[in-house]
Amino acid sequence: MPKHIVRLLILMVLFAAFAYGAKQYFTVGSYYSYGHYRGNAVADIASDKPKFKGSASCAPCHAEQSTEWSSGVHNSAELGKVVKCEVCHGAGGERDVKGPFEPAPTGRDHPDHLKLAIPTDTAKLCTLCHEQMAGRPAQQKQIVVATHAGTLQCTTCHDPHSPRTIAGAVLATAPPGDPAAGKAMAAVCAGCHGAPAAAGPSLDGQREAYLADAIRAYKAGLRANPIMLAMVQNLSDANIRDLAAYYAGQSCRSAGNGETAAAAASEAAITANCVVCHGADGVSRQPLWPNLAGLSRNYLAEAVKSYRDGGRKNKSMSAMASGLTDINAADLAAYYSNISCR
Amino acid sequence: MESLFIAAPYTGYVYPNETVFPWSVLIVVYPYLTGLVAGAFTVSSLYQVFGFERLRPVAHFALLSSLCLMIFVPTPLLLHLGHAERAFNALLTPHLTSAMAMFGYISAFYVLLLMLENWFVFRPYIVEQAQKRRGLPGLVYRVASLGSNDVSEKAMRYDRKWIFALAVIGIPAAHGLHGYVGFVFGSLKSREWWSSDLMPVIFLFSAIISGTALLIVLYVVSCWLRKVRIDLACLKGMGYAMWGFMMFALVLEGVEFGALVYRGREGIDVIMEFVAGPLIVPFFILQFAVGAVTPILMLSYLFWRGTGGTPLAVGIVVSAVLVMFSVLMMRYNVVIGGQEIAKTGKGLLTFQFEFFGRDGILAAASVLVAPLILLSVVVRFLPPWHDPVAP
Amino acid sequence: MKKEDPVEPRSGRRSFMGLLGAAVGSAGIAVAAETVSHEAVAASAAGEPRSVAKPKIPGYDWSEHQWAFGVDATKCIGCLRCVEACKTENDVAGDAHHFRTWVERYVTLEGEDKARIDSQADPVNIAASGSEKEYRFANRYKDAKVEKAFFVPKLCNHCTHPACVQVCPTGATFKTADGVVLIDHTYCIGCQYCVQACPYGARFFNAEKQVTDKCTWCYHRITKGLLPACVEVCPTSARVFGDRNDKESPISLFIKENRVQVLRRETGNAPNVFYVGIDKEVV
Fold this sequence. Notes:
The structure holds three protein chains of three kinds.
Chain A: H1 3-26, H2 40-46, H3 63-70, E1 75-76, E2 81-82, H4 85-89, E3 101-103, E4 117-119, H5 122-130, H6 145-148, E5 165-166, E6 169-170, H7 179-186, H8 190-193, H9 208-219, H10 226-232, H11 237-249, H12 260-266, H13 272-278, H14 297-309, H15 315-321, H16 326-337
Antiparallel strand pairs in A: 1-2, 3-4, 5-6
Helix pairs in contact in A: 7-11, 9-10, 9-11, 12-16, 14-15, 14-16
Chain B: E1 10-13, H1 25-48, H2 56-72, H3 74-80, H4 89-92, H5 99-132, H6 135-144, H7 153-186, H8 199-226, H9 232-263, H10 268-276, H11 280-305, H12 309-340, E2 346-349, H13 361-381
Chain C: H1 10-47, E1 67-72, H2 81-90, E2 101-109, E3 116-119, H3 123-129, E4 146-155, H4 163-167, E5 173-175, E6 181-183, H5 193-197, E7 204-206, E8 211-213, H6 219-222, H7 229-233, E9 239-243, H8 250-257, E10 273-276
C-alpha cells in the first residue's frame, strides 16, 4: 500500500480515538443515570425555593385577618371556592411592589425581608373575579360595576376578608320576623315614631335589616341614646326582628317636608358617594343601608354630623362624612328630607 | 434594556407564545446552504461516478465548492443557538430520537468525506507544489502531502479507487444530509404546513437544482475572471441537469400542495387564507412564476431551438440565477411560511425582519457570502482548472 | 476515466471499502454504539425502579408518584390569578409573549358560527390591565349578544409521549419518572426545535437565559408537598393537581368522577392534563 494511504489511515484512526476520548471526557458524570439526560438536573430543578407559601404561613402573625377570612365566604372550602391570602396579597416569599399594591403602613419587613403589601385599588382587584362578564359561570357572584358601585372602592362597603360583611354587619340569614307580633310591640314606639312630624324619625317602610341592626346597636350601646337604650334593652333578638319586619312592611307616609326651595338650593351637595348607596331618590340599594327619603331634616343632619364626629360608628359612613362641614350636612338633610317616599 | 425579542403581529387567534418566531432567516439560509452542497456534489458525482464526460471542466471545481459551502453549513445554526458554546452537547450526548442530533454526525462525516475526496483529487498538485515551493506555502503543501511524494501509476490507481469509492459513498451521504434537513421539517406533527412525507424529497430535488445553478453561475464567473473561453458543452450539460431536475421538483411541490389542500384537514381554512393572501408575492410570483416557470420556459425554448454561443450561455446563466433565487424563496416559504401559520389553525402571524442583530438579514447574508469568499481564496491554492488526472 | 481503468479485483476493492469504513466511520459508530448502550441500560433500569438510584431530593421519592393535572373549564372565571402567580413563582418574563400557563376565552355571539377567541395576551386585554405584567380580561362583549362563552386555562400537557422530548438533540429536556417534562437549563443549547415540535404552543424561548422554557408543574413545589402555584391560587378550584398513584387524590377523583378529555389527541402525544367542560372549538 502506498505510503500516503497508510499515513492517511493512521490519521483517521487517531482522529477517531481522539473523538471518542473527548466524548468520554466531556460527558457529564450524572448523564444517563436515569435516562437520556443529566441526572442531577432533576434535583437541581427541585431545589428551587417556592415563593407562594400558602395561607397557613400567614395565620400565625395575621391571626385577626386570618380568623375573619376563615369564617367568611372567601373560604368556602365545601364549594371549592377558597380565595387564599396570596391570591390578593401576592406571594409571601417574594414582594414585587408594583401596580395596585403598595407597602403596608407598618413598614415591617416580611419574614423573607420583603415588604408586606396590602391592595389599595380594590375596585380593580375585586372586579378581576366579580365583574359581570360573558364566560363567567353563573355560580360566580358578579356585579355590573356601573350600577353597583360606580367608581367607589369595594372596601368602602365590603370587608375584603369576608365580603358578605357589609360595612361592619354580617348579611345574616336569620329567620324572618313576624310583622303581627311586631305590631303589638310597636304601640310603645308610636309615641315618637308615629306621625311624620314626631320627635323620632319615621320608621314606616324603612329597610328591615337596617332597622334590626339599628335596634341592636341601641341595645348594645353602640349608638348612645339613653331613651332608646331604655326602650329596647329588654327586647330579645326575635322581638327585634318582629319589630323590624312590622315597620318595614308599612308603607312610607312622608310626602317630603315641602321645603322645595331649600332642597333645590342644596341639590348640588348630593354627591355620587351618597347616591351610590342611598339613591338619588333616597331609596337604598342594600337591606343594611337605610332609606333616606322623607326623613326629618333635623334627624338627617344630626346623623351625618354624628358619623363625622364618631358618635355613630360605621366605617363607610365615617369615611364619607369625614370631610363634611355642618353646612354640608344641613344641605344633604335638606335634599333628602324633601323627597316624597310615597 | 433593549428588547430581547421581536413580537410578531397577528390576526385571528394564535397561542400567546407563538408571537415570537423561534426560527428566523438564519434557518432559511441553513437548508439553502446544505442544498447547495448536495447539488454541487451531485454535479461532481455525475462526472466521477456516472461518467458524464462533458462535465469534466467543473467536476473538481464542484467538489471544491461543495467543501467550501459545507464548512459554512454549521454557521447559521451556531449563530442561531442560544448557547452556541454548548453546541457540542449534541455530539457528546446525541439524542437518538432527534433528527437534529444526527446533524452533527452526518455533517461531520460529510465534511470528512469531502476533505478526503478533495485531498485525493488535488494530491498530484499538492505533491507537485510541495516539491517546488519553498517557505511557508511549501511547508503547508508538504504537511498536506503527508510527506509522501508518491505519484506513481500504482499510487494513482489507488487514488482513483478512493475517489470513486468516496464519490459513491458521497451520493447517499450528501442526499441523506439534505433529505434529513427536509425530515427536520416534514417530521413535525405540530405544523400542517411542514408535516409531509414528501418534504425530504422536495428538499432534495430543490437542492440539486440550486447546486447546479450555483455551479453554472460560478463557472461562468470564473471563466470571465480568468479570461478563459466557456466550455459550452459543459454549460449546456449543467443546463440540462437543472432543467430536468426542476421539472421533478415542480411536480413534487405541486403534488404536495395539492394533497395538502385536497386532504383539507383542520386548519385548512387558515392555510387557504394564507395562500390567497400573504403567500401570493413570495410564493406564486417570486418562487413559482419568476423563479421556476420563467427559467423552465426559457431553457425549453433554448434547447428546442438549439440555440448556441453567447445567447445560450446568457440564457442558461439568467435561468440559473432565477433558479437560485427561487430555491431561496422556497426555503423562505417553508421555514418562515410554516411559522406564519399559527399552530392553533385559527390565526396568521407576520414575520418581522430584523436587519442587524444575531438573527438578522445581515448575518444571514454574511453566511451566504462567506463560502464564496473562502472558495475564491482556496482556488488560488488548489486550482481546480488544473487537470489533475490528465492521462 | 473509467475506460482507462482496468477493473480492480473484487478483493482489492473490498479491502479499500472496508478500511475506509473502519477508519472514517469508527468515531461515529463508536460514539453511537456507546450511546445506544447507555440508552439500553437506562431503559432496562426504568422497568425496575426499585433497583436504580434516585435523584437526591430531600423527603421525596419519585418512584412513588405519578403526577397529573385537571382543568374544569366550567369553574374557570378568567381571573388570571394563575397566570400572574406562575410568572411570579417561576420568574417568567413580565411581558405578553412568554407564558408557562395562560387562559383562553371562547365567545360565540348570536348569529355567528365560529367562536371569537382571545387570551390575556391579546392587545385589548393588555390595554384593559394597563400593563404587560398584569392580566385581566377586558369586558369586550359587555354590550354584545353572547350565545355561549367560557374560559379555558392552558399549560404544558406533560405528555406521555412528548414530541418536544423526542426532537431535543441533546437530551436537555426529558420526562422524569414521576411524569413531569423538565428542561435542564444548564444543558439546553437553545435551538428551539422543541418549541416548533410542541403542538400546544406550551414552550417558549427564554430570551434572558437564552434557553427554552416551559411549565414544570412547579416541580420545586410538588417535590416539597406543595401544589403548583397556579393551583394554589385558583380561587374556584378550576385547576386540580395530584398523584394518580393515590386513588383518593384530587386528580384521581377528578378523572374518575368526570368524563375527561385531552387536547389534540390525534397527535399521539398522550397529554396528562385532563379537561372537563371544553367545547369542540378549543384548540
